[in-house]
Amino acid sequence: MKALILTLTITALAATAGAQTIGQRERNQQQRIAQGVRSGSLTPRETARLEREEARTRAIVHRDRVDGGGMTAAERTRAQSRLNRTSQDIARLKHNGRGR
């Protein structure tokens, strides 16, 4: 029985170890955008678009955290979906062959 509990605990910890919080993902995406600007793989227009997208997500997350004392599971899921979409946009725009 103890072995089973230990195995389940280790499995749960391993599953959450790779998961990033919303704040961590936002910081990571900002770093990716900044790297794209430095390397020249993002044009000023693409950068502005990504920054607007990030700002909208931050505003939504802030509003969700403030109203009701925290984020519900549905709000976290919606925020993660927005971050997924932004992440895909960053990758697509950084590798579309356009540059400064």
What's the quick description here?
The protein has four helices and no strands.
Describe the protein's architecture and organization:
The chain is an all-alpha fold and 100 residues long. Helix content is 79%, strand content 0%. The protein contains four helices and no strands. The model has no long low-confidence stretch (mean pLDDT 86).
Low-confidence spans: pLDDT under 50, at least 5 residues? none
The tally of beta strands, per DSSP, is: 0
The amount of beta strand, in percent, is: under 5%
Average residue-wise pLDDT: 86
For the sheet with most strands, the description reads: none
Report the radius of gyration as a whole number of Å. Answer: 18 Å
Question: What string gives the helices and strands in order?
Answer: HHHH
| Oligomer class | single chain
Relative helix content: over 70%
Q: Structural class, from secondary structure content?
A: mainly alpha
Cα(first) to Cα(last) distance is 61 Å
The count of helical stretches stands at 4
Q: Judging from the principal axes of the Cα atoms, what is the shape?
A: flat
Blueprint (SSEs and pairs):
Elements: H1 2-17, H2 22-39, H3 44-66, H4 73-94
Annotation keywords:
4 helices; flat; 79% helix; 100 residues; single chain; 0% strand; mainly alpha
